[in-house]
Amino acid sequence: MSSIVxxxxxxxxxxLGIPPINxxxxxxxxLECSPEQIESAYENQRMPEIVRMALAILRGSQMGPxxxxxxxxxxxxxxxxxxxxxxLSESDAIERAAFQGDESWFEILDRDRDGKVTAEDLDWSDxxxxxxxxxxxxxxxxxxxKSGSGKVTREAWLAFFDRMTGGDExxxxxxFRDSVLGxxxxxxxxxxxxxxxxxxxxxxxxxxGSPFEGPKVGDTAPDFCLQTHDGGQTIRLSxxxxxxxxxxxxxxxxxxxxxxxxxxxxxIAKQFDSQAKFVGVYVREAHPVDGWRMGSNDAVGIEVxxxxxxxxxxxxxxxCRKLLNASMPMLVDEIDDPTGHAYSGMPxxxxxxDRDGKVxxxxGRGPFGFKTGQMAQALVMALLEQYTSTQxxxxxx
Length: 397
Fold this sequence. Notes:
single chain; six-stranded mixed sheet; 38% helix
């Protein structure tokens, strides 16, 4: 079957004297430019994401947060929007009693659980202490999660304790620090660090992500029609849009941060089962063994090649869904990635689409931008926007 997606906007590279990028293969022309040529060409204008990523690779980047095309989310909602909705200034706080929505929504917005919502609760930038601590917590979690399933069992927790203590009955700070910060499957192992050639190959193969930027906030969400992992259902996005917001969760088996965070996204889907529709979209592998192979994947037994056929991708999707015990529908993108490119969904990303089919929230690219808590807050504010609008229109009758 064929995905029905809106045309993908070409990436304009005319400042470099290069025709617009319409296919992944066209990126090779960009990589022939020097960093100096690129910087000079875009000195006084916006640099497209693919150009930023190419420049980062040519400059020797190791793909850290805020490098290349890894940047912040786009959202209709902000602290300023939320404070204004409640008739408050940006320096105020929203107390529980004054909140205009459901109590469970307040709990999600009140990230630090202090009984009020402030600007800090909605700050998901890399300078946020909360985000920095979350990165550290994720490193520890992934070290303990030896199965790579995004779940830690009691047995796994006790096994980690034994490894950390070397058989002792207690541990000190240094043992704990070294367990969290030392080389581990949770962090960048020596075998995980990419060479420039690996990054170039990954860029050309779209394994680092799509060269296309996807829809902006306020744009109509590109329509698509894909089958579920088991072939038992065909889902068309346009038929889902209407009464409830839709959340799209893009990801793949070989992206470790996606696996560790997907279970959170799935739990959010269950929590909002009657208030929103969640759909997973399985896309191109980020770290196949025949690409940028990750020792952290090998350590948990995830060693797969990049699929060359749709059936092979379905096999990976089925294995991923089983390991993660996913409850939301998992759609499988076609082998030429039409939906992944239309949404710039590789290696992983999340969207909240409103009842009118417009993009209300677009997360940053994974792995760094795949922040499930941020998506949950955006969904809550979309629901709050819908709820307060209904209340206002009802009061005017």
